[in-house]
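dumping this here so i dont lose it
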């Protein structure tokens, strides 16, 4: 009997009972499992499935406690939350599409376990693969150097790379100390200490034209310094945030934006006229401007003036394309 069968069995034991069920009876019905297993199972059902299981001291047993409205508890139709379901489907697709390689034999048992989990009769996930779509947008192939970059990052080795910058349309050669790989908006980026610039930089992995792992150990930058540089400002463009964008969205758009998370340190509030004001810390405006422009006439940049001017310039240039 696996965990999911035990959950269903315990639910059937408690469903509709008027008297508490002793722990010994639960253990017997769950194929004489240990007390600790029963306690873990009850905790899981309480925390993840919302089951109102209570220990009734005077009766020495467990019971489903009815809600204030007197309604009986029912197991949810789906036992996964949104993130778990997404992870399961993505993992299944990744394993299914994995080509021949050194890891194929090692990952095959994992793929079988994922398939077995999806096909479990208690979970009702047999339709998951065909009924749930995970869409990628503007994803780029990771490039020919992904394996070398990932290996150096994990093995803590310096890398000599030849890099083509899209923004400047130029190639440079540099030695970097990989800090971590970031998968952002369906694309891979390398966060590293760049000896050429003597500072932290992000590199789009697909634009690394060549990569050679060196014998020298990579420089380890403290975690708090990495967070301050790579996570304090908006988007993938790193650096400590030094400006705050103030954006006001129309009443119609507010119904979406108020529920969105643009940045961990964002602050938002509804205005008296129904519009929504969002404040976002940033440094480099490039990605923020692109995200502002996709909202068109439903957003106004209030501050700072430099950001407002840049968005206006982009809109005027776009309008010029249409005469």
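and the seq i came up w/
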């Amino acid at each position: 009997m696996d965990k999911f069968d035990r959950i269903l069995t315990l639910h059937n034991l408690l469903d509709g009972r008027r008297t508490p069920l002793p722990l010994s009876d639960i253990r017997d019905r769950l194929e004489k499992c240990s007390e600790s297993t029963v306690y873990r199972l009850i905790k899981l059902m309480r925390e993840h499935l919302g089951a109102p299981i209570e220990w009734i001291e005077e009766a020495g047993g467990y019971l489903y406690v009815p809600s204030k409205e007197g309604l009986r508890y029912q197991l949810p139709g789906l036992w996964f939350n949104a993130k778990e379901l997404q992870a399961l489907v993505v993992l299944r697709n990744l394993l299914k599409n994995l080509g021949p390689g050194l890891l194929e034999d090692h990952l095959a048992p994992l793929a079988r376990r994922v398939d077995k989990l999806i096909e479990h009769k208690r979970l009702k996930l047999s339709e998951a693969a065909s009924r749930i779509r995970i869409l990628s947008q503007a994803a780029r192939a990771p490039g020919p150097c992904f394996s070398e970059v990932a290996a150096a990052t994990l093995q803590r080795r310096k890398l000599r790379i030849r890099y083509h910058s899209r923004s400047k349309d130029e190639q440079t050669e540099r030695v970097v100390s990989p800090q971590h790989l970031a998968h952002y908006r369906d694309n891979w980026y390398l966060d590293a200490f760049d000896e050429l610039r003597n500072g932290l930089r992000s590199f789009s992995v697909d634009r690394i034209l060549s990569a050679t792992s060196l014998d020298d150990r990579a420089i380890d930058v403290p975690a708090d310094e990495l967070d301050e540089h790579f996570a304090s400002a908006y988007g993938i463009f790193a650096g400590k945030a030094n400006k705050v964008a103030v954006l006001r969205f129309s009443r119609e758009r507010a119904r979406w934006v108020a529920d969105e998370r643009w940045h961990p340190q964002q602050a938002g509030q509804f205005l008296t006229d129904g519009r929504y004001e969002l404040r976002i810390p940033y440094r480099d405006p490039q990605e923020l401007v692109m995200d502002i422009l996709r909202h068109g006439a439903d957003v106004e940049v209030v501050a700072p003036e430099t950001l407002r001017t840049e968005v206006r310039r982009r809109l005027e240039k776009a309008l010029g394309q249409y005469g």
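The two ends are 71 Å apart (CA to CA).
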